[in-house]
Amino acid sequence: MNVENAALEALVTRTMPFGKYKGRLLADLPGNYLNWFAREGFPPGDLGRLLALMHELDHNGLSSLLAPLRQISGSKRT
What does DSSP assign to residue 78? Predict the structure, then answer.
């Protein structure tokens, strides 16, 4: 699996580790929350990169591209 595929899979398996949406899949975070991070700054590291990627997908109306990955990942969450 290449880096891009791994990042997309992480969006449908990893959960938000803190804040108002703690425990929610990164792919399920609302657009206004992602927009807030885009304005205020994404957290450092892997989580910030994933949130920035999800923001780009959401902002450009491409969130539906994650649907096949959701089916593959099933209940796998970290």
Answer: -
End-to-end CA gap in the chain: 18
Report the residue count for the chain.
78
3-state secondary structure 10-70: HHCCCECCCCCCCCCEHHHCCHHHHHHHHHHCCCCHHHHHHHHHHHHHHHCCCHHHHHHHH
Token readout for 36 is 């807030």
- Alpha-carbon 61 to chain mean position: 14
Does the structure show a pLDDT above 90 at 19? yes
CB-based contact 76:25 (threshold 8 Å) = no
Distance CA 24, CA 3 (A): 23
The tokens of 33 are what?
């929350």
Instruction: Give the mean pLDDT of 6-33.
Output: 95
